[in-house]
């Protein structure tokens, strides 16, 4: 099971005692909006800059729920591909809907989390079973996993040796990893806000620009 935190609105700055585990179904009565934070590839939900985002949203009066996907942080298991990670994210959405059925829910994806958010949109569109989020925030998004790797600082060699790009695509395909946000977000039925720094040295802003031109449903 994916380990989760629930930070309530106006949590104290020291963050002590404000991270809740399970909450009973229907327990959240204030109807305040909920942000589901999907973190990036490195580290876990407790990484300092992520905690600062939780604190900011909490101070603004929002609930924040976040998880470590299986294999991250103190979550057990090992993901066997994109589908497992996305299933963990959808389980967080189901949890939010169950404990706060009357609150609007927004997904905040950061870096890899933006790709997970896109795949959530696709899976929910295909299978149903949970009400989609009311909105999505994409913080440093990319178009697909291969493009993100190709344009990353470590991808310089792929831009010179084409065979390495083909090899990486083969590896991603064998691991069932695509995070094809450029396709997935065409299925979105909610507003999407894109945040991207012009000097992002990991995920170039050009990928965010490309994604911003996607036709939303």
Automatic annotation (TrEMBL):
Domain of life: Eukaryota
GO MF annotation list: monoacylglycerol lipase activity; phosphatidylcholine lysophospholipase activity
A Pfam family matched in the record: Hydrolase_4
GO cellular component annotations of the record: endoplasmic reticulum membrane
Domain Serine aminopeptidase S33 as annotated: residue spans: 50-176
GO biological process entries: monoacylglycerol catabolic process; phosphatidylserine catabolic process
Protein name: Monoacylglycerol lipase ABHD12
